[in-house]
Amino acid sequence: MPAALSAGLKGISTVDVHGAVTFTIWFCGCNLKCPFCHNWKVAERIDCRLLDIDSVAGELERARGFIDYVHITGGEPLIQTDAVAEIFKRAKRLGVSTSLNTNATLHKPLSSLIERGLIDHVATDAKIPPEIYGVPNSESLWRMYLTSLRTISTRKIPLELRIPVGKFPLEVYERYLAEVRETLGPGEATVVVNPLLGPPTTMPRDPAWCREYCNPSREQLEAVAKLAQSLGRVYIKRWGLD
Question: What pTM was estimated for this model as a whole?
């Protein structure tokens, strides 16, 4: 059985997938170094532990009547693809739908899980501009991200497209969202516009970076939401800005 390094789980969650109740598991590790990340300790595998998949399956069986999805998030879960596949296979046997939160830059493992019929829903951030990935070759990773979106769209998998918004020029969002629109087609996604939050609301990987670029205005959120309208129904999260 594949081993999984995890930061824990929450048997009933109403905040991890828009409009859904989930059984959420956090997987450790990530291939990106986003400066605004508030789960950076999970990404850096700090205080993580091996996950007992048999125990998780038992808890999932008890929770299945109350949830819409088993939702695996991170970090970046696709670093541990075999463990994701094992949990999703067990969920399918229990009649539970599956949801994956991924940065979608690792197309090959994502495509493999999709081809095996193991993913019923995907949540992903359109991180704009891709320089905020915090690693080299960000534009190449963005191209891989678009490839992943195309695969998700082609297979008609429900998509929650999250747009984290910082204090960047609207022209930047316009450029990259146009590429997303060209990839997905109109009206296919549930779009959630989120503010990038910094101290004191969150403790991001790079507080100095966040002091400059996080905590956008309500006007900025609304302007980005307007740019995203053709992608699907748009919801704006204003937490931390009131």
Answer: 0.96
User: Tell me, what amino acid is at 59?
Assistant: E
pLDDT of residue 240: 61
Q: Report which of 40, 42, 60, 63 is spatially closest to residue 52, judged by C-alpha positions.
A: 60
* The token pair that represents 157 in the structure block: 């998998």
- Tokens 């060209």: give the residue: 182
* Overall average pLDDT of the 144-149 stretch: 98
Q: Name the strand (E) or helix (H) holding 55.
A: helix 53-63
SS (H, E, C) the chain: CCCEEEEEEEEEECCCCCCCCEEEEEECCCCCCCCCCCCHHHHCCCCCEEECHHHHHHHHHHHHHHCCEEEEECCCHHHHHHHHHHHHHHHHHCCCEEEEECCCCCHHHHHHHHHCCCCCEEEEECCCCHHHHCCCCHHHHHHHHHHHHHHHHHCCCCEEEEEEECCCCHHHHHHHHHHHHHHHCCCCEEEEEEECCCCCCCCCCCHHHHHHHCCCCHHHHHHHHHHCHHHEEEEECCCCCC
Give, as one character, the DSSP assignment of residue 78.
G
Tens of pLDDT along 102-136? 999 999 999 999 999 999 999 999 999 999 999 99
The secondary structure of residue 231, as a DSSP letter, is: G
Q: What is the dihedral of CA 6, 108, 99, 123, to 10 degrees?
A: 100
